[in-house]
Amino acid sequence: MRNIDKIRTSLGLDNIYGLYFSHKGLSSLLPLQRPDSQTGLAADSKCDPLTGSCQRDGMSLEPIASPEPEALALFRPVEIEQKKKELNRPLPVDCETQAYRLRISPVGHQVNLPVFMAGERPAATYLDITLESDAEAAITLVTAKTEEPIFLNINLEANSRLDLNVIKMPGYISWQLLSYRAAVGDGASLRQHSVNLDSSAYQAGQVFLRGEGAEARTQTAAFVNSFESQRFDMTIRHEVPHTVSDMFNHGVILADGFGCFAGRGVIVKGAFGSKAEQDSRFLALDPTARAEAYPVLIIDEYDVEAGHAGSVGQMDAEALFYLQSRGLTLEEAHSLITAGYLFPILHDMGRCVPALQKTVAYLQQRVIEKVSL
Amino acid sequence: MSRPVLEIKNLSCSVDNKEILHGIDLTVRGGEIHVIMGPNGTGKSTLASTLMGHPSYQVNGGQALLNDEDLLAMPVDERARKGLFLAMQYPAEIQGVTNADFMRTAMNAKLPADHQIGVFPFRKALNQAVTELEMDPSLPDRYLNEGFSGGEKKRNEILQMKLLKPAIAILDEIDSGLDIDALRIVGQNVTQMAQARGEEMGLLLITHYQRLLDYIVPDYVHVIMNGRVVRTGDKELAEKLERDGYEWLRQEAGLEAEPADAAPAADLLSGLPL
To answer: I want to staple B7 with a disulfide (CB 3.0 to 4.6 A). Which of A198, A204, A232, B65 is the partner?
Structure first.
């Protein structure tokens, strides 16, 4: 079985159509269970392998010209330059890209599209994603052993809803570089979940709430291994009234690991009635673990609700005592609390996209294995 | 199961280098219900936490034996597996761990590896306990104590006691934060469990108020003052305390008032630029 099929099967994503970016470029993945496709390699009549274009279930995909470096430069937030020294692998913006445009139309249900990026790829990947008015989609981006940058340019038209799930495939350790920009229109909603349980990563997000009633909720679960580093930069700008944002990040760091959550909630003048919340926390499992949490709010309007919390700490001694007082050993209590630190993000991902229940169960199991060591 | 016995002999202990208990003697046997009362700050909860092995409490002397085994030499989890249970005054909130997952882990911690409880028997027992305690049916799938009201937390402690079936259960101010109905439900459940288990379980209740004893009738009532047991009686003693307060007992025992913990406000403010 190919690695890509093992990954799809492990995540429970082998029975739905998906996109696959590999060293050969883009290909489509058919459900593995289909009798005419035991390997997932059978020709897809709805996709043209020569042009890379594809149309199915409200989705249309076509190649586009690679964006200019100036356009890619927008994907690198200013703060990165300031913090560059802390990044072993800054986000390159003068690189060659393979660029595609993905449009999703409303079809009366949530379109579920897994996108796999695995192995060494010939160039960075640029995806221009548009959800048309009233469209609903879950895009689950899975990366494995691929270090080329990924750029997502997302446009959510009125009343559309996107669940963007970014999963670094456990066990396939490699750098992950991802940056996305999202414009959210009237009444539209972006929910983003990121899960990385082993690899170094840099992930940036810039969300622009541009329509009244627009919402953005982002959640991150990070398990930082020894000598790895994971950094998440997230900015959400409230540009019009009555917009809502919520960032929720939890990370666990082993000895000599480094983690950083830098969140910025910006409410511009005139964006009254908006709400912005942030909660970023790290659990350090060793005195040599390093972590930084920056829950920043920049507010230029009076009539708003905003709150932020950030913490870096060790395990709560009272919680350990409580679990031990019920008969759990210190090691069992330690494991349960550590796993519980990341589970709320996984549980929420499963609630937002019920089709990902098997994916969530797989990730939970990986967390349990890691904390049981 | 044989009749459990918890023997506390001349136990003294400190918190932050300040001695709180100055020699407690108490024996609780299976089938008995003991109640500890006393003014604030006299060491009631200190006794409970010390017996369970809270790391903030240092034992200075004395013994605590559970079925003739040295409780104080055991780590916290071993005390629990030997049958000691503490329903806490302020149970910890643990995000991401559901009540059901935690309870099953805790129940299995007391069982041998080849006799672990299965999912279906566990769910049946859990649902029954939830129903008996008139709790929210969604409770098993909620995170452990997170977002629970004060009353829900206390009921959740009793739920754990029902499922874990301890030999000696210590309930530390289980009645605080409960409304009238919740107090009745908790009281009735504790009494039913005590009756059903008979001599297999002994109970040690810590409370400030006689009202809990309307539902859980004690065999013994002990009063702790200044870190010692100064009087032992029955339910009538609790009623007298409710009626007359502690001053008469303090005078009878020749004790001075408890030293105040907090420094006077004037001292706290001294040195500040006012």
So the answer is: B65
Identify the residue whose tokens are 């006077």. Answer: B264
> In 3D, which of A21, A42, A23, A22 has the Cα closest to residue A31?
A42
pLDDT mean by block of 10 residues, chain B; 274 residues: 91 94 95 95 94 96 96 97 96 94 92 90 94 92 92 94 96 91 94 96 94 93 94 92 90 74 45 43
**Are the beta carbons of A113 and A19 closer than 8 angstroms?**
yes
Helix A330-352 vs helix B99-109: angle between axes, to the nearest 10 degrees? 150
Q: What is the identity of the amino acid at B203?
A: L
Contact B80 A325 (CB under 8 A): yes
> What mean pLDDT is predicted for residues A38-65?
69
The shortest C-alpha distance from B144 to chain A (Å) reads 10
3-state secondary structure of A52: coil
d(CA B265, CA B270): 9
3-state secondary structure of A197: coil
Q: How many CB atoms lie within 10 A of CB B179?
A: 11
CATH number of B5-95+164-269: 3.40.50.300
Domain ranges of chain A: 3-371
Residues facing residue A102 across a β-bridge = A61, A129
Q: Which residues contact B248 (CB under 8 A, 6 or more apart)?
A: none
Q: Can you say how many angstroms the Cα of residue B39 is from the centroid of all Cα atoms in its chain?
A: 16
pLDDT for A56 equals 74
CB contact under 8 A, B81 and A341: no
**DSSP 8-state assignment for residue B114:** G
Q: Are A321 and B90 in contact (CB under 8 A)?
A: no
Q: Is residue A65's pLDDT more than 80?
A: yes
Residue B263 has what DSSP assignment? P
Helices B150-164 and B180-197: crossing angle in degrees, nearest 10, is 10
For residues A319 and A299, what is the distance between their CA atoms, to the nearest angstrom? 36
**Residue A328: closest CA among chain B residues belongs to which residue?**
B77
B80/A327 Cβ within 8 A: yes
Tokens coding B249: 């007992």
Interval A230-238 mean pLDDT: 95
Beta-sheet strands, E only, within A169-285: 176-184, 189-196, 201-209, 215-224, 229-238, 244-253, 258-267, 275-284
